[in-house]
Amino acid sequence: MEEKQKVLIVDDEPRNQRILFETLEDLVELKAASSGEEALSLIEEFQPDLILLDIMLPGLDGYEVCKAVRANGKTSFTKVLLISGKAMIDERLKGYEVGADDYMTKPFVSEELLAKVKVFLRLTLVERHLNDLNIRLDEKVHEKTQQLLESEAKLISAAKMSALGEMAGGIAHEINTPLGTIALISSQIREFLTEDPINREAVTGLTIVVDETVERIDKIIRGLRSFSRDGGQDPIQSISVKHVLEETMNLCREKIKQSRVQLMETPIPDDLLVLCRPVQLSQVLLNLIGNACDAVENVENKWIQLEAERDGSSIRISITDSGGGIPPGTQEKMFQPFFTTKEIGKGTGLGLSISKGIIEAHHGSLNIDNQCKNTRFIVLLPAGAPVHVKAA
Predict the structure, then answer these.
(1) In whole angstroms, what is the distance from residue 352 CA to residue 334 CA?
(2) Are 74 and 54 in contact (CB under 8 A)?
(3) Torsions phi, psi of 232, nearest 5?
(4) Residue 163: which of 59, 284, 25 has the closest Cα?
(5) Whole-angstrom Cα distance, residue 77 to residue 32?
(6) Which of 261, 273, 270 is nearest to 319 (CA)?
C-alpha cells in the first residue's frame, strides 16, 4: 500500500484544526501544532510535504516559521500554504517574499482547500521525482565521464607505445652500438694491463671513452623511462623547448639515421620556454617526427627539419619533411581517430587525433601549414616564463 503524503497544520485555534482534520484526514497523514515553536520542532521530526500555516500565532508568527522552513535544507521540497483571516495585499506579498507558495483566507471553502492541497502535493511528488532523476543523472554522467577518462588514458598509452614500438629498432641499435664499444674497449684495457710498463695514458683515455659511452646509454634509458610513464597527471610547467626536443631525439635519432633521412635542426635558444607537460609534449613530437620519417620513405631527397621560435605569446614548433604535402581530402580526415594512410600493421590511426587532443588540452593548437610547399605540422603552445629564484 502506498504511503500517504504528510501535511502539518499550524493553527492556534482548535476549531480551525478540527475543520482541517475533517477535510483532509482521508487524503493524507496529519499532525497539528498550536505555535510557531511547536511547528518547527514537529517539522524536524515529521518532515511534512505540505504545511498549512496560520500567520497569526503565539510566539513566532507564520512569516518567521516560513523563513525557517525555507532556510532548512531538509525541507527544500516542502510546500507552504499561508492562512489568514485577512485578505490584505501587503500580507500576501510579504508571504511570497518569505517563501510561501500560496495564500488562503479564512473561513475555508472546503472544496477550494482540498483542491489546493491536492495540487501542491502533486507538485511535491513531481519535484522529488525530478530531483531523484537529476541525482541519478549526475551519477551516470560522473560514471560515464570516468569511463571516458579511463578510455582516453588507455588510448593515449596505446598510441604512445605504438610510437615507441616504431622507434624500437633504432633504440635497440642506439644501445647495442655503445655496448659493443664498451666491450671492445674493455678488451683493449685488458691488453694494456698485461704490458710492462702499463701505458697509463692510453688506459686513462679509454676509460674516458667508456664514461662518455655510458652517459650516452644513460640518456637513452632516462628518456625511455620518462617517456613510458603516465605523464597525464603531471603539472604543467615552464620548461626549455630545447630540452624536450633533445629528450625526444634520444629516442628517434637512430631510426632517422637508419631510414637515411637527413635531420636538419635549427639551433634553439636555451631560454626558449614553453608551458607544457614534458612527457606529453615529447609524445606529440615523437609521433610527428615518426610520421615525417615514414612520409619520406619513398622520396628521393629525404629530410626532416625541426624548428622552434617565439610567436607573440606562444611558442611555435615546426616539423617539416621533404614530402609534397597532404591532399585536401586526407587533411579533412587525418585528425579523426583510427584514420591512417599507412599500410595495415604499420599504424593505429590514433597518433594525430591523440596528439591534437593533448595539445588542445594544453590550450594550444596542432595544424598543418598549407602555405608550405612540403609537409609541415605546426604546434603552437603557450610560452613559458623564467622562474626567478630570490637570493637567500
Answers:
(1) 7
(2) no
(3) -65, -25
(4) 284
(5) 19
(6) 261
For the cut 80, the answer to whether the pLDDT of residue 345 exceeds it is no
- The answer for residues whose C-beta is within 8 angstroms of residue 202's C-beta and 6 or more apart is 192
Q: Which CATH architecture describes the domain 6-108?
A: 3-Layer(aba) Sandwich (3.40)
pLDDT at 228 over 80: no
Alpha helices in 10-109 (DSSP H): 14-24, 36-46, 62-71, 89-97
Cell of 364: 594550444
Strands (E), the chain: 6-10, 29-33, 50-54, 79-84, 102-105, 237-240, 262-265, 273-276, 303-311, 314-321, 365-368, 375-382
- Whether residue 14 is preceded by a cis peptide bond, meaning omega within 30 degrees of 0, is no
- Range(s) of the chain covered by CATH 3.30.565.10: 157-382
CA-CA-CA-CA torsion sign (113, 119, 125, 130): negative
Q: Where in the chain is the domain with CATH 3.40.50.2300?
A: 6-108
Is residue 306 exposed (0-12), middle (13-18) or buried (19+ Cβ within 10 Å)? buried
Instruction: Give mean pLDDT, residues 321-344.
Output: 71
Mean of pLDDT values over 76-82 = 87
Structural class in CATH, domain 157-382: alpha beta
Query: CA angle, 34 as apex, 30 and 37 as ends, to 5°?
Result: 105
Number of residues that this document lists for the chain: 392
Distance CA 172, CA 252 (A): 11
Average pLDDT across the chain, whole number: 81
**Each residue's pLDDT tens digit, 167-196:** 555 566 567 667 777 887 888 888 778 877
Query: Would the pLDDT of 30 be above 80?
Result: yes
Would strands 50-54 and 6-10 be described as parallel, antiparallel, or unpaired? parallel
d(CA 51, CA 2): 21
In this predicted structure, what is the pLDDT of residue 227? 61
Specify the pLDDT at position 344: 45
